[in-house]
Amino acid sequence: MSATGIGAAVRRKEDFRFITGKGQYTDDVTRPGETRAVFVRSPHAHAKIKSIDAGEAKRMPGVIDVLTGADLAGDKIGNLICGWMVHSKDGSPMKMSPHPALAAGKVNHVGDAVAVVIAESVALGKDAAEKVKVEYEELPAVVDPAQAKSGPQIHDVAPKNTIYEWSLGDAKATEAAFAAAKHVTKLDFINNRLAPNAMEPRAALAEYDAGTDQLTLWNTSQNPHVARLVISAFVGIAPEHKLRVIAPDVGGGFGSKIFIYPEEVVCLWASRRVRRPVKWTSERTEAFLTDAHGRDHITHAELALDANGKILALRAHTIANLGAYMSTFSSSVPTYLYATLLSGQYNIPHIYCEVDAVYTNTVPVDAYRGAGRPEATFVVERLVEVAAREMGLEPPELRKRNFITSFPHQTPVIMAYDAGDYNASLKRAMELADVKGFGKRKREAARHGKLRGLGYSTYIEACGIAPSQAVGSLGAGVGLWESAEVRVNPTGSVEVLTGSHAHGQGHETTFAQLVSERLGIPFENVSIVHGDTDKVQFGMGTYGSRSGAVGMSAIVKALDKVEAKAKKVAAHMLEAAEGDIEFKDGKFTVAGTDKSAAWGDVALNAYIAHKFSGQELEPGLKETSFYDPTNFTFPAGCHICEIEIDRDTGKTEIVKWTAVDDFGTVINPMIVEGQVHGGIAQGVGQAMLEGVIYDKDGQLVTGSMMDYTMPRAHDLPAFKVETTETKAPSNPLGMKGCGEAGAIAAPAAVINAITDAIGTEQLAMPATANAVWSALQRATPRA
Ligand code: MCN
């Protein structure tokens, strides 16, 4: 392994600019004549708009225009749409509501955009926004997804507020397996609603060039090409390349920046109308009110087992709250990304899952780190842990009896797992966590009046989203491949244009490590270019932990082509047959001789056109590829959480965290470890601290950092993180994604640990001190 190649813990090259304040985020970009957009938002969860009077606001100093849904409709700007079709079990298509970028006649959640003020500054815009008089007729609201079907109807297209009633698996076979079971474990739980809270809030800056009829959008996007494709259609920009989307440095996304939001559509449209650049940057409270939230499931789940603890079947019914409108990918999260993972790491012969997706008067819900897979893991890992307790088995023992041990393994819920060694990660995690010494630690804690608990989460996820072949069999339409272009300059330095987009994952480092290793050139001589639709031809962007397995595989494919062409050039230079050229460590050699040419010489020669005159070889050294994997990758692992609880206050401290994950080939262990740390922190946040709360009228109670608790460093212990390795056969590097693992594994590990200590399974997330204390009042702690 070279010091900067595959497997090396290279420091992230992008961090210098980030930690020295040199990053260029959307809000840092300024354009001459820039104006600011300030949105007038609904204070009501559900109301008719009787009238909007913007007269006074329009006359205020510094106000350029005030635009409403009527203006939008007048300019024929269409509705935001959800991209993935899901059919109900009766075959009917999902009920997609209209979603105009500015409300048309009715608002459906607090924060719904009603009008926009375009002003010389944010301050002037805010003053004017207060003077926009909107007369509302309030309507009753529905907030609780359990009440959605009987609540006031939100959209004409969706009776009983039902978007779809979907199912997966064989209901009859599952029922028969339950009938034959010796033991059935039943659980009810809520997977709490989360606010994404990326460090950089969403922002958009749109500029219209009347000379060329060209629009440019700087945007906090995780997938600028998809944004261009979709937004150009909404805003009526044709041909599509008249819109350039640039996602410069993006300060975190966690999924929340892959969707098409009203604000960027409005900025583009407004800049074309007012003929000046229009910028909008979200404030934190605006972010709580408008960024798509995550999770929000109500689930009843059951596990059927035989007398020996062999799992016979699993069934689940979930109500998924999708909020007031369907967001870009929301339909797929509680279906294709959730129910398809309900087999966990286990050999479960029969699974049946029903998902009812509903509208409520809350902000839309869509993908958030893990997207469907944390919810699935929570179902499976809570059921397994509780079943073990109920049957008097050690939780790891029940897991071992049911682990899938031979691959490939076809689950009853579509996914075909390709490789893994679940026993290996469980065994190693138990060693690292010193499970054997737990009893002693528990007794010691008891002497100090504390309760100790140990919780496991042996999770699985499907990453590398989303191979066309697999997506086709899910009936979900388009697959999500990735592109790469490798440009070799005459000096031998390399620029890689990738369709992936980094917003914290360190691609500028790991992608350069791959190229450095493959071409045997210095890491510093490789630059990664991403996030600009005028530079990169097309790309699908970053989410679903796909940039390694899919994005880097596209680079491998392009590098293969580059190497093949470079060999032709070297053969010409060395006057040898092409088949005799070997390439290793940055050197082309004629096999069996000492004749060789260095990478840099070959690169230069590739550009000396006269050398090839009269030959078939074209000058230049640049190759493109599009890579569509044959399957998802299936990262899996074991997380063990150990907690200590103060009996008097319910205050719970995580005292130990052990994670052993299988990410296949690891490119950069330091980056991977960082990804796992971040994921665990978010998972712990969900389990113990975070939770979006709306009151019964649809007012957001947790609308600021004072009300919505994010995990801090002092909430977390020093993590013990290791990896095991089984290579993913579906991509040339054998990589599996690592970006979501922690967030997927952690909630179940935490709740399993706390319930182990307190002796009741009735504990809702977030397990705050108050919740734990209350649960303790109803329980007898386990000895
Ligand atoms: N990697 C590696 N070896 C592996 C797997 C990955 O070295 N076996 C490296 C990759 O090269 C990349 C990083 O680890 O530099 C993450 O790779 P991957 O798992 O492929 O995930 P993506 O790059 O596609 O990132 C998406 C993932 C998701 S889905 C969310 S949500 C998330 C996450 O990454 N959002 C993040 N991590 C985040 N980290 C930050 N800082 N900010 C976010 O918004």
UniProtKB/TrEMBL annotation:
Under the GO molecular function aspect, what terms does this record hold?
iron ion binding; oxidoreductase activity
User: What's the protein name?
Assistant: Xanthine dehydrogenase family protein molybdopterin-binding subunit
Please name the taxonomic classification of the source.
Bacteria, Pseudomonadati, Pseudomonadota, Alphaproteobacteria, Hyphomicrobiales
Q: Which UniProt keywords apply?
A: Molybdenum, Oxidoreductase
Pfam families assigned: Ald_Xan_dh_C, MoCoBD_1, MoCoBD_2
Residue ranges constituting the Aldehyde oxidase/xanthine dehydrogenase a/b hammerhead domain according to the UniProt record: 20-140
